[in-house]
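chain below, 708 aa
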Amino acid sequence: MRKKTNTMIWSCFIASSPAMAAITDNQSFYGYTGLINIPNAYTADFGSLHTQYNNQLEFRQDIVDGHNFTINAGVFKGLEVGGKIASVSIHDNLFHETAKDNKQIRDLSFNAKYQLPFVPHEWFSLAIGAQDIGGAANNYKAYYAVATKRLGDFDLTLGAGSTDNLTNRLDGAFAGVQWHATDWLSITAEHDGEAASSGVKVHVPKKWLSNNLAISLAANYYDHKQSEDDIYFGVNLKYQLNKSEHKSYRPVKPAPQMVSITSDSNTPKVNAAALTSQRSQQADNTVSKGKPSLLKSKVVTHNATDSELEQTAMAFKAALLADGFENIHVGYSLSSVHIIIENHVFNQNELDAIGLILGRLQAHFNYPGMDFNLVLQKLEVPQIQISGQLDEYRDFIQSGSAPNLAITNRVNIQHGGLTWVNFGSTNSPYYKPRLTLSPDIVKGVATELGVLDYSLALKAQLEVPVWQGGSFVATGTQGVATSDDFKDNKPFTRFRHKDGLTSLTYKQNWQLSFNIYNQTQIGYYYDFTDYLGFKHQSMWMSEDGRHQVSAQLGYFDYQDYDGDKTVYNTSYQYNLSEYDISLSASVGKFFNKDSGYKLTSKFWFGDTSLDIYYLDTTGRFVGVGLTVPLTPRKDYTTPYGVLKGKSNWRERIQTRVGNDANTVAFGLAQLPFNDTSIETELFNQSRLSESYIQHHLPRLREAYKTHK
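prediction:
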């Protein structure tokens, strides 16, 4: 017979461990930031991703030894979103178990918590939250408000909630205290509205791990009248998505906008009075309010000869060739240097390429009074144009004071009045194969058949550019592993990966007037059967990159029997680059004949993004997607081709809402040929714009210092 106690006292004698700066985003056993059972008023750190496993499972009114898998992320300061998979077993088929009267639970739920910003933190922290939001079967539905006060090494928590949970956790008032005894140990005591518990959390020392990883272990004594065991255990991993190179900068302020005037000799000069006035007006602004035009420098003060400039330009071009850049053109005059170039080597983020190019430029052309003009292209399709003054940019590299840059996606390439370097190769991008390798997963999560069923394949995409904006693309998959339910004559057999070619297309990008870009793909496509078809996309982006509108249209003809499919989609996206957030809405008819709309909020952490979406097509769903770069910042290049991973590999998990049954749905809101789009091909996943660059200037400097 199991021994019951009303309380359990953890006592520790700490002889030599130093006091700590307490960790505020400790994870509970239920997918939110908190103690063990109850939430506190803290939220997950911005840009952090927590994953946890524990065996304390709520099954109806009982606490049993089962399986909880939780995930929680700080999407911005004060807001966390997460989810939980709860299951009695990992692999049991619940249809079979129910037939044997062995009832189980397998549940997928979502959580959210928001810390109210209007309460001064020196008073206390206050948050509101919800557990098991939406969903078809709300087994763990709860709403709560909670306050936490820091007193020395102690966090005192008091809250109240309402729940449908049969264990009565968070039903009414709840309270707890957490003692941060050392930098590796914390002790908790709490009452969750129904029962008391006490626990301990042990944090693995940071010096044993990488800077972006934290690991903690937890044990909980739960004095619940329906508890199967006394003690339950958990392990939590925290990963910081926005890595140090993306956030460890001292704040910088953009330089004031230069006011150009022209002298009688047609030499660009600077109005010194206007410059002084602007500096005083804009010194306290973090973002320049004016929109600079293409900038002209001060009067040239260097004495370099044309021969010296030519030698410098040749050395600069050679350095860019060594970096792996393509289609390189360098032109110069006594007062300026112009670069037209293509980046196929820095595929995580185009800003790394821009930072290295401009960093090398200021290092080579160390001549006072010169300005520069950089045009970035992709297979000779213009992407963006950046101009500025080399003296200012050199100060930026040396001291971190931000340069005044004129940035526009309305590219105007000028060739007149310049001497172009004809020495050496331009490193042509054409007929140079580019191979992208990535995993591809089809999965069922928390279904009646298992916690995770999957078909895992290696996906390879080979692209060969042939002329301006045009290339041939072949994509194929090779199965690697499957769970039992994806094997022959099993429930998910139909959705298993096909080995071999899955698409063979010709792709053409081109630009029209008024900042409109187009992409057409035509060729073979496989989805359960063979199709021939095409898809066309047109996209417009505002000059500052805030707004973008896209429209897609496709037609696909069955090759195995008479029939066809038509797809169309229209979307609008608003980019808040200063917060690394984008909001989008799309509506259309999709490949599997489902039609409807999708609303998405995307949060960027460096080159990783987390998106939360609501989808309404054949049913209503809420989901969370995680997009990560599976490739290094600088990819492997040779004179014969490029080998890389996928820069935007995405996985998602979703659940039905507003329905009594959470039936499995594959392939909703799907568009063919979705590996490439204008946003990813030409606009750096919608991050190649004036707004984005101006708010991420420190990355330009860091990229040069890292890769020079």
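The radius of gyration is 29 Å. The chain has nine helices and 35 strands.
thats it, cya
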